Amino acid sequence: MAEELVGTGGATSDPDGPDGVRMSWNNWPRSKIEASKCVIPVAASITPIRASPSVLVLPYQPLRCKPPCSAVLSPFARVDFAAKIWICPLCFSRNHFPPHYAGISEANVPGELYPQCTTVEYAPPPLDHHSAPSSAPPPPPVFLFVIDTCLIEEELGFLKSAMRRAIGLLPDNALVGLLTFGTQVHLYELGFADVSKIYVFRGIKEISKDHILDQLGLSASSVRHGAAVGMPGYTKAPQTNGFHPSGSVHRFLLPAADCEYALSSLLDELQTDQWPVEAGSRALRCTGVALSVAAGLLGACVPGTGARIIALVGGPCTQGPGMIVSKDLSEPVRSHKDLDKDAAPHFHKAVKFYENLAKQLVSQGHVLDLFASALDQVGVAEMKVSVERTGGLVVLAESFGHPVFKDSFKRIFENGQQSLGLSFNGTLEINCSKDIRIEGIIGPCTSLEKKGTLCADVVVGQGNTTSWKMCGLDRTTCLTVFFEIVPSERSNQSGIPNPQLYIQFLTNYQGPEGQMRLRVTTITRRWVDGSNAEELIEGFDQETAAVVLARYVSLKMEMEEEFDATRWLDRSLIRLCSRFGDYRKDDPASFTLNPNFSILPQFMFNLRRSQFVQVFNNSPDETAYFRMLLNRESITNSVVMIQPSLLSYSFNSPPVPALLDVASISSDRILLLDAYFSVVIFHGMTIAQWRNMGYQIQPEHQAFAQLLQAPQDDARVIIRDRFPVPRLVICDQHGSQARFLLAKLNPSATYNSAHEVVPGSDVIFTDDVSLQVFCEHLRRLVVQS
């Protein structure tokens, strides 16, 4: 049976393989000095709960090695079937099989020992105190909507229709709450059936968690005095979920099936914020207080249960905690220049507030999702810490009516094929061979500060731990783990050192249906002699290396003042090429790179020009948004962010990949650019003229109609499978929106070389160097003696 389940995973076509792990180096140097000479950090990109048809699900508890190792039994363990003993590959401890494994033999092995099952999932039935597996239903998911009302009438209309669609898609048992904010915060008591009952909080100052609970009647003292139970006006809610003893959960959070009508009525009555806005002033908006109240409510009602705060924000916070700009319109919202010069008066205070909010949400096990839709900035740069540390989703759009917002918002609640597989309450533990230390993780998680011998002294991202919390995670959530190689004295002693290293990732999480699961992935890689460049080259993954560098540089740009990313990348690339390239000293023409490294200079060229390194022309909010997605997406998706893909459509050939170069533009071609955040369909001049003349509707020009339709269909496929939904731009050569394509192309033809351009092609007005010039300089610098 297990053989049928296993082996169907398309390891050939899938670069992540069945384990969902990719490494910058698949052969590891044995010493710290050799690792530093490799330039690119030794790192693994892991997708902890990646959907894979080949993952074997085992309905029992895992077998663990004795503490402090506690690794789970895997196919790499050495098993003595006669003595019923297994040896852990990580710590070499000998462990006896328990009695219920008595039938084990070479012909009868449990699923976790199948050689192809390096990733398995344990789904043990929950045990009841009295008898067999418990029949109590798993806890329902909780959604608390936090809605900004400081909007114009039209935007509020778009937001309401998106909310109505979302409420219709929620599972019937999901608990739903509603909170709106403008100048003040309004929390709706949905369980009060007779009339609409609202709790109002002032938005001008920080409110402590105890104060919030007192006002809501949820603190221990108010529950003792019977404030929440048995009062007139409440619908008696059955106590199935075993939550707060007072039933207070059902005052503010009701099952979607019970409150659909009440929510629809509230949305119908919802108006834009009625507080008057003075001339020359921004609307007073208290985003920080609203999120504090939401976190306090969930902490009192459903601690430790999968719950999401879904914040729909339409402008900057202008009062109270988390404020990013004053109400005075003469003060602009902070820019990158202001942050560099330390001229953003509210920035550090707001970040501190959101850091504390993140700590509170992580301790409660809750997620903050942010949907920001506005033409100006709303404070994503400040809120980044609380979204990223709780594993929340983030979408940045121009309007609540824009498809980027509408389609992304809908995707959260869809199930079946289109489901994101949103899971809750994850913890990741990493265990590895003795000569390896963990520096930290870049990605949507929080360090649980579980220090141990496996922690490195150097910290990258969320470090100083071997265990991380992921309040929210989904099938595509990806983390980058950085390792340090520290050979111990024992491994340097005489005798044959172990040629393999082992790393085990343990992910405990609550699935979309509420069931608890443990995903165990055990991987092995080879130790090699660091002075043997050929073996290192053989195990190099240039796509993963480019993404690891992009994530590492983005982190350094945020953490270190005056960090020159372009220069750092250039120097790293020169060192790498001089270490692994083939060349004769002082002869640039002799320089060649192994195919395993050959695309890396191109990746670096595009990374230097990308929105992750060049913040010019992007707001701090946009930069924060791009980096958050870079840090949580798979390697394949992240590569597209760094180096977009380009397809060319023409009459005389099927769609073919084209060079990401201005020379690919031709008047009789259509180009389809996938830059991850946007998808661009670009019509050459002649194609656009024919389309404007309406040739495609004439029966004799059927081929032209098909040519116009093909990129549209391909773009739809890209958009359908992606979250957040990318922006679709349809433009013509020499049109204003053609900039979306031109900005991404290699400027091989500029205004300086216009005389050499093929008719019908294009030039780019820039002083940037082209890829050819970049590579020439690289060759010259690498071969210098």
UniProtKB/TrEMBL annotation:
One Pfam family named in its UniProt record: Sec23_helical
Topology versus the membrane: Peripheral membrane protein
Residue ranges of the region described as Disordered: 1-20
Sec23/Sec24 beta-sandwich domain span: 424-528
Gelsolin-like domain sequence ranges: 654-741
Biological-process GO terms, alphabetical: COPII-coated vesicle cargo loading; intracellular protein transport
InterPro entries in alphabetical order: ADF-H/Gelsolin-like_dom_sf, Beta-sandwich_Sec23_24, Gelsolin-like_dom, Gelsolin-like_dom_sf, Sec23, Sec23/24_helical_dom, Sec23/24_helical_dom_sf, Sec23/24_trunk_dom
The keyword Ubl conjugation appears for this protein: no
Keyword Phosphoprotein: no
Localization per Swiss-Prot or TrEMBL: Cytoplasmic vesicle, COPII-coated vesicle membrane; Endoplasmic reticulum membrane
GO annotation, cellular component aspect: COPII vesicle coat; endoplasmic reticulum exit site; endoplasmic reticulum membrane
Principal location listed in the UniProt entry: membrane
Sec23/Sec24 helical domain mapped to chain residues: 541-639
Any one GO molecular function term: GTPase activator activity
The Zinc finger Sec23/Sec24-type domain, residue ranges: 62-101
Residue ranges constituting the Sec23/Sec24 trunk domain according to the UniProt record: 138-413
Keywords in alphabetical order: Cytoplasm, Cytoplasmic vesicle, Endoplasmic reticulum, ER-Golgi transport, Membrane, Metal-binding, Protein transport, Transport, Zinc
PANTHER family: PROTEIN TRANSPORT PROTEIN SEC23 (PTHR11141)
Family the UniProt entry places it in: Belongs to the SEC23/SEC24 family. SEC23 subfamily.
Function, in words: Component of the coat protein complex II (COPII) which promotes the formation of transport vesicles from the endoplasmic reticulum (ER). The coat has two main functions, the physical deformation of the endoplasmic reticulum membrane into vesicles and the selection of cargo molecules.
Protein name: Protein transport protein SEC23
Annotated source species: Musa acuminata subsp. malaccensis
